[in-house]
Amino acid sequence: MGYKTTIIEIGPDASDFLAEQMAITFAGNAPEELRSYCFVIEKGELTSPLAVGQPVLIGDQEWQITAVGDAAEKNLGALGHVTLVFDGAAEPRLPGALHLRGSYEGPALEVGAQLVIGHA
Questions:
Q1: For each successive 10 residues of the chain (120 residues), what is the average pLDDT?
Q2: pTM over 0.90
Q3: What does the alpha-carbon distance between residue 79 and residue 110 come to, in Å, rounded to a whole number?
Q4: Largest Cα–Cα distance in the chain?
Q5: Is 43 helix (H, G, I), strand (E, B) or coil?
Q6: Does residue 52 sit in helix, strand or coil?
Q7: Across-strand partners of 58?
């Protein structure tokens, strides 16, 4: 497994980014200026590299990584920070982005939901 965590808080403005098919995660140390836009997660340990084709579980939904930004792995491992982009793009538009494809209208991002990257 690459990364496993739980959503512990949802910023009041996080839905603004979801409307743009994006979700920003941060471990508990999110900067104050971004915190209201974040899905705050428990700090997890990144145990394997992020890669195109890996599955991503959000609650009971499964997505697949289609692109990995240059800084996504470093930021996720160090800060629990990544921008999930639900557009299935083959090229990342942000250095800290993971682009995902799934058959869902929107992600099941809610307090208590698990986020698992690279499950077996």
A1: 92 93 91 92 94 95 97 95 97 96 91 88
A2: yes
A3: 20
A4: 36
A5: coil
A6: coil
A7: 61, 115
